[in-house]
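Two proteins were folded this term; both appear here.
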Amino acid sequence: MATETPRAPDQTLADLYPEFLAALLAGDRRRCEALTDQCLGAQVPILALYQQLFQRALYQVGEEWQYNRISVGRERLATAIVEGLLNRLYPRVITPQRSGRRIIVGSVEGELHQVGAKMVCDVFEMHGWEAIYLGADTPTTELLRTVLDLRPDAVGLSLSVYFHLGALLTALARLRGAHPELPILIGGQGLRQIGPTLSDDRKVHYAADLDALERLVKRLPVTDPPPEGSAAHGQIRA
């Protein structure tokens, strides 16, 4: 009897994507979970699963809502399902080898989308970082206070809707003014057209997708926090 040749991970994702998207649009949480488990059983890497299944499907859902083909309630349900899948996969994300490094991630003021930012946190966790997510609609003042208190090795800012670009630029300016050497990562669907133009500063890094983010994580320099009581205490040296 002939043995069936195992499908490559990319082929598995391509084959299952239409069914996953249909289940997501229908609000069928259990079917989405089953298809995710099928991908894991086919040895699909977590990063590919995030990018080629979850993120791709949510972009399509967003487009359906934008053109009034689905309701905002249906769009939010799809987002909630994917967030549940991320939580379900989280134990697979954490690596026991910890780097001792920390990143703070937030969605800029007014930005209610948070799935992309959570995926960013997971990528850092895969590389042994402690990733702290401050949530959607992160007030810039609170972001600055948290950076001062926790002294991270990097900060990540997510922008899903271009309309909130002004909030991102404000946050960048205030972070750079308070912490001139702190590496800042920016990304999100709202930056797909202009992201590279915002990374002229050598300490501001634009990640167009999760693959680019993973490459960036490997390049980020190791930082040593300044000693307690020093003039630079509360700031980060890269």
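Next, the second protein.
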Amino acid sequence: MNIIENVYDIVIIGAGTAGLSAAIYGVRAGKRVLVLEEKAYGGQIINTPEVENYPGIAKISGFEFATNLYNQAKGLGATVKFERAVEIKSQEAATTGIKAVDDGTLTELTTVTGKVNVVITESGEYICKSVIIATGAKNRPLGVDREKELIGVGISYCATCDGMFFRGKDVAVVGGGNTALEDAHFLSNYCNKVYVIHRRDQFRGESRLVDRIKSKSNVELVLSSKVVKLLGTDSIEGIVVENTIDGKSSQIACQGVFVAIGQMPDNERFKNVVSLDQYGYIVAGEDCKTSCEGIYAAGDCRTKTVRQLTTAAADGAVAAIAACE
């Protein structure tokens, strides 16, 4: 009998709401669960100052919500390692008898037969029967010249993280969804002036959020417009916006630009084992099953129409139950 370390029943890639919810369901089903996270637990929700749309919780900060979820998963017995998963390989098991090792302590004998998945990280490899990909999505950039160069000196993707640096200054928020509207409201409490720039003539976000920013005297809506140029040498001094209807350009003086135009997945590293759609999302239905047996996708990284906190948690539960089977 070969002794192989780092063997788990389920390996979850991503410690956001979907991944941690999956971990909770997995360990409660008696499975050995490993969660791999390349940065910090919590995902995008950790930067949200107030969560008011999660059933059963009237109001909570995103950080507190994520921390509670993380502590719950850890408390139930999930192992969390901060490593970036770079690849998944599916192969036939090389042995049927495997001694599982966790944090240097030998646990019960685990039998693995048939096909297994190997999750490769920058630090090592982990063998498991099932993988749940819950990598979420990352902020979509504006796509204009010098954007990357000006990150941290005027360009930001997190109003709650960086908003206080712009107290008393003029800023622009780019986007038309809930995140952009929430960012604009948050910034209006600290900044002198907040311009909200959206490429369409109507917002995609909730009507109550639209009404809330319209009631703020220091918020100005710049609709049917897109940012085409960033002004300033060492930091942001303004932007050039172009009207999407008549093509006319105008300048807006500001010291900060908060980009909230949606998200994009980070799934290219898994395209060798699962199918991706044209936008890079993992093709998976409400059952969270991918094109590869034993590999599931949960949360914002998969194809779906609604990407919310509740649907991420639901995906985590569905994927974990399927993985346990």
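The two ends are 26 Å apart (CA to CA). Confidence is low (pLDDT under 50) at residues 95-101, 104-109. These notes refer to the second protein only.
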